[in-house]
Design goal:
It is a single chain. By secondary structure, the chain is of the alpha/beta class. It folds into 2 domains: about 160 residues, HAD superfamily/HAD-like (Rossmann fold), CATH 3.40.50; about 70 residues. It has 11 helices and 8 strands. β4, α7 and β5 form a beta-alpha-beta unit. The radius of gyration is 19 Å and the shape is elongated. It starts with a helix and ends with a helix.
Amino acid sequence: MSAAAAKSRRARCLRAVTFDFWGTLIWPESALQARAAAVAAHLGVEEAEVARAIESAFLLHTETWRSGREFGLNGLIQHLRQQFEISSPAELRSVIAAPQLLSASRPAPHVAEALTELRAAGLRLGVVSDTGFSPGTTLRQLLSEHSLLDKFEPSALAFSDEVGVPKPAATIFQAALVGLGTLPEETAHVGDLRFTDVVGARALGMMTVRYRGCHDDLAGAEADMIVDDLSQLPSLLLEAARGN
């Protein structure tokens, strides 16, 4: 950590922490095969055709996300409607948003213990996350299934499909801050991506922590702190909470 970053860290009194979802709280596994199979069965078409359509939609999603706009599940459904006959978009949405399609994904090691320790110390916790093809409603269910949802303030769950913009836009971070009732300088953000997590949080004046246990992002601005295991997080953040 640079001397300037260390000085800034000591000057803050931490009251809350926000977390990225994918690659931070939850380690993702590809849902392409399961999603393609579910959509193909629902529409009565070949699974391989659906898989190709979803893969092409993901390329559009990535391009859109990089430009700072939301694509998400609505974008996927619109893309599928251009290639298949879809009588009920609402029913298709339910098929794609089914939590069981994400069953291969799993909580990050030591995440529950870290969240419990932070809450026990009096810190308020939130989520700031881009959603991809799984909406915020599904991600809440996934957190609940892994007994993590109750660690967070319900009003501080900011998902890009609900806010309308992805990170690094200030709006999505601000939505969580309002729910937490804290100022940016009183809040840390933990995430795995420099371009979205570090850049977005830092622009508002939040403390930044890059978690590289799942994915080591090598391009872009570095965070104030780096952790390889979430078990390291409480001691670092609690030191900041004490203003040390």
